[in-house]
Specification:
Elements (H helix, E strand, L loop, with lengths): L8 E2 L2 E2 L3 E2 L5 E3 L8 E7 L10 H6 L23 E3 L5 E3 L5 E3 L6 E2 L2 E2 L5 E7 L8 H17 L9 E2 H4 L13 H6 L13
Parallel strand pairs: 3-7, 5-11, 5-12, 6-11
Antiparallel strand pairs: 1-2, 4-8, 6-7, 9-10
Amino acid sequence: MAMNEQLTIEDHKIKEAAHLGSPNCSERPDPEDVSLIVIHCISLPPGQFGGEAISQLFLNQLDCQAHPYFATLEGLKVSAHLLIRRDGRLIQYVPFNKRAWHAGVSCYHGRARCNDFSIGIELEGTEESAYTEAQYRMLIAVLKTVHRHYPKTADHGLVGHSDIAPSRKSDPGPSFDWSRLAKAGFPRSDHFLEAE
């Protein structure tokens, strides 16, 4: 899709995304409470881009013998709502009205279990390497669309995985340009505190 194309949501999915249904999801306790957006980063193997390993992980199809690092992921059941590839391509694994398994033990503004009420967006990348122009453009388009369809998300700023689980996670890391999103109207929240 062209980067300036308007995104649309139908049946809780972004129409313009590629759709790969992950089994790693469940019902939200309150389907009407979609009120937080969490930014993550991922690359598999770490630091290598491209390939199908991320999707294979989210679909429980990863060959854990194919790379030494993959052995550490044996039995892991995780997913995200969206992945933005290095070239800006968008993949959706879980519809927004379902709970994707992306945040783990986490807390936002005194609320634990952030998976219950959040949308998880993965950027293909590492915490140390710069994200691409195409990824920022697509992320901003996604945020505009999600805010429009799930207005409670507009009441809160964005958070990184590190903000809601700081003792466990450090993504999206120092390479992520929060100021760029703030200038586009999507500020980072300061209302986060990990559950002990």
